[in-house]
Amino acid sequence: MTASRPLRADARRNRDALLAAAREAFLDGDTDAHVEDIARSAGVAVGTLYRHFETREALIEEVYRKEVDELVAAADDLLAQCAPEEALRRFLLLLVDHAAVGKGMSVALESIMASDSQVFDDARTRMSDALTRLIDAGSAAGTVRGDITGPTLLRALGGICALRVREGWLDEARTITRLLLDGLRHGASRAT
User: What percent of the chain is predicted at pLDDT more than 90?
Assistant: First the structure.
């Protein structure tokens, strides 16, 4: 398998514009957004869309993958900027916000859930790994329990974010996330 050539600057701009237009359409609740509308919103022809994404599902998948890329990168950025406990707190709230983005995209994402796409398994693995790095850093600092794993914490947060079908869920999810963080602090052997 040969590596694909890097995109020219104009092709990169077109691809980025298509991803941004698709993201906006899905987040605005336009779950039936047609590729022609997304291309028009991005300022390109529909043929350009299909040169970058073979199907509508491929476009949806890439929008979601980009969301996950940004989310996972935030974990390391937060660890570089904050104390581990604060980095974990902020990342947990980012995960809740990610669920809010997912709510806007949920119907669009359903079209790829039925396919053989590995995008969700990959996302869960990457988010779990990011949580593990944050937990390990907090445990090493003595501010977070070390007996909780990233996958376990992600499942707990998934349960919290399942509330998103209810009105006002986001505020409640943030409150429950703060309680979860209190539990992660309880029993930590604080470093002196």
Answer: 50
Contact yes or no for 154/131 (Cβ under 8 A): yes
Q: Does domain 56-185 have CATH number 1.10.357.10?
A: yes
Separation between Cα atoms, residue 180 and residue 176, nearest integer Å: 6
Find the mean pLDDT for residues 105-131.
78
Q: What mean pLDDT comes out for the span 65-74?
A: 92
Count helices and strands in the chain by DSSP H and E runs: 8, 0
- Fold adopted by 8-54: Arc Repressor Mutant, subunit A (1.10.10)
End-to-end CA distance of the chain: 53
Calpha distance 181→175 (Å, rounded): 10
Angle 132-81-122 (CA atoms, 0-180°, nearest 5)? Answer: 35
Q: Using alpha carbons, select from 56, 35, 55 the residue that is nearest to residue 45.
A: 35
* DSSP H stretches of helix in 28-118: 35-42, 46-52, 56-81, 84-113
Going from N- to C-terminal start, the domains of the chain cover 8-54, 56-185
What type of residue is 169?
W
Side-chain half-sphere exposure of 97, counting CA atoms within 13 A: 12
The CA distance from 58 to 157, in Å, is 27
> Do residues 180 and 131 touch, judged by C-beta distance below 8 A?
no
Kindly compute the dihedral angle of the four CA atoms of residues 18, 23, 29, 34, in this order, to the nearest 10 degrees: 20
